[in-house]
Amino acid sequence: MEFDDKVPIYYQIKTVIYDQIIAGQLAPGDKLPAVRQLAVSLTVNVNTVQRALREMIDEGVIISQRGKGNFVTDNADIVEQLKEKLINRYLKQFYDRLHRLKISNQQIIDEVTAYIERQGDLNDNNAES
Amino acid sequence: MEFDDKVPIYYQIKTVIYDQIIAGQLAPGDKLPAVRQLAVSLTVNVNTVQRALREMIDEGVIISQRGKGNFVTDNADIVEQLKEKLINRYLKQFYDRLHRLKISNQQIIDEVTAYIERQGDLNDNNAES
DNA sequence: TCTAGTGTATTAGTTTCCTATTACACTATA
DNA sequence: TATAGTGTAATAGGAAACTAATACACTAGA
């Protein structure tokens, strides 16, 4: 996998897994790949995977069972809260950035709309990928 | 100033200065504060400021004149290109993030609109700050 | 010409992230 | 009960970012 060298890898791994949970690719109760397997597929050290997991466990989203594996919490509320938290974080960061550039609110909406019309034509159906 | 500990400080300094240039708070030809002054006001080491400047100089946005100071390029085209580049980068990052969460294109637009209505009411006029 | 204000470079030391390696703890099952 | 598959911990070493301190190079103006 490709990583942004401006952000810690463990943090990007956490983001990827959270995204998969929110997108439903990892459902509540699902078992994650083994840490050693994750490390191989991400081309990263086991300790780096473990660090990402540590934070997700501390946040209650991942449940760890020694000897068995790591699992997505079966508490759907936690997943739902995570989703809202992340969406709001992304919205805020995006809005703050453009607002700092003195782009007006209407312009921000227009830019997003135009961007989606330009780039998003083929990706409107979210069923496949 | 507050920094995000997930991103190198020098990179965040670069972002702040670029934002000020694009927002017009630093106009083409304007002189930047002295590096030592910037270091103090950002509560950061001179070398860290210098590293941010180095990249902006290499990218042609800042012109350095030894003994005189650092200046925003007076080439308005470069500034305009920078603006488009950054806006597009922010749009792409935002869109990719939400799309990864399986948020549909229409939902993305709706979320942005709702967010702005919620948060942006008092900031619609961009003349003051 | 001296001095203050500017950018630039270098060296040394700390912290964080990441890797590599090894070891340990627990579970399920042949 | 052995073994394979799992999570967890600890140590050591390297690389990048940041700080601190010092020195050097250039400009403008008294």
TrEMBL record, chains A, B:
Q: Which residues form the HTH gntR-type domain?
A: 7-75
- SMART domains according to UniProt: HTH_GNTR
Keywords, comma-separated and alphabetical: DNA-binding, Transcription, Transcription regulation
Q: Does the keyword DNA-binding apply?
A: yes
Which PROSITE patterns is this protein grouped with? HTH_GNTR
Task: Give a yes or no for keyword Transcription in this entry.
Answer: yes
GO function term, MF aspect, one? DNA binding
Name recorded for this polypeptide: GntR family transcriptional regulator
| The species this protein was found in | Secundilactobacillus pentosiphilus
